[in-house]
Amino acid sequence: MARAREKEATEDYRTLNISALKRDNLLRPGLSLEWAWWRQGEKVASIGITIESRHSMRLRYQSRSRGGEPTQYDYAVAIGWTPCHLGGERPWLHCPRCDRRVAKLYGGTLFACRHCMRLNYRSQQASRRDRALDRAWTLRRELGCDSGPFDYPADYIQRPKGMHRKTFTRRIEHLQRIEQRAIADFKSTLFRLGMPLDRIYP
């Protein structure tokens, strides 16, 4: 069975944050504005937003899929309000796909919540990698090995005295699967950072 694709991170997507709109006093009915995203002082994308009412905003933008023609999008996003404990109200966006109440929507073809976009936070991805490496170290120590996967491949680990050969083989195979996942994630992180992989792991 093929390994499931790792979720992408919320940090990789353009975010529409209703808290920022409220902070800048931009939730006034009848207001039309351009909401832009910037990178190193350069505008990289923008959408048009019209606040139709207290409970609705309209998004207008153009999106192009890879190799496809640009498509115009124009649709409403519901706004909800809940009271704050210390007074006032807090606004929420309702995901156009699932109607989930959220503070942020993420820009794909449609702006949607992170659940519909199948996104998680980069810190969660790091936690999974850390858990895989922690588990690999635990298995290595159980096999009497105090070196890590980058210094001492699992194939080189010697069978501990008194351990059955089948048990040893099973544990080595389990260790290799865990380390392959951890190393693949590590390489992916280095690639995103622009670091040369061949100098770190062959």
Oligomer: single chain
Globally, the shape reads elongated
* Termini Cα gap: 26 Å
SS field, number of helical segments: 3
Count of beta strands? 11
Strand order of the largest sheet: 3-4-5-6-7-8
How do the SSEs run, as a string of H and E?
EEHEEEEEEEEEHH
Low-confidence stretches: 1-11
Kindly report the average pLDDT value. 80
Structural classification = alpha+beta
Q: How would you characterize this protein structure?
A:
With 202 residues, the chain is an alpha+beta fold. It has two domains: 12-118, no CATH class; 122-193, no CATH class. The protein is 27% helix and 32% strand. The protein is built from three helices and eleven strands. It has a six-stranded antiparallel β-sheet with strand order 3-4-5-6-7-8. A three-stranded antiparallel β-sheet has the order 2-9-10. Strands 1-11 form a two-stranded parallel sheet. Helix 2 (122-142) packs antiparallel against helix 3 (165-192). The chain is elongated and about 75 Å long. The protein starts with 7 loop residues before the first strand and ends in a 10-residue tail after the last helix.
Report a brief summary of the structure:
Helices cover 27% and strands 32% of the residues. With 202 residues, it is α+β, with helices and mostly antiparallel strands.
